[in-house]
Amino acid sequence: MPGLTHTVMAQFPENSFIFKEMLDRSRMKKSLLPILILSSLIPFTALYAQNFLNVLNVRYYLQPGVSMQDSGSLGGFQEFRIETALPYETEKGNTFGLKPQYKQIHLQSDDSSREDLKLYTLKMPVFAFVKWNNKWSTYLEISPKLNSDMKDVEANHYQIGALNVNYLKWKEDFYWQFGFVYNQDTYGPFFMPLLGVDWKMDDRNYLSILFPAYGIYERRLSEKLYAGFEIELSGETFRLGGSGYENSYISQLGEKKLTFLTEPHLFLDYYMSQHWVLFAKPGFRLFQKYEHYTDEAGYGNPGETYKRITDSPYLEGRVKNTFYFECGLAMRFRYDEETAE
Question: What is the CATH number of domain 8-336?
Answer without folding.
Answer: 2.40.160.40
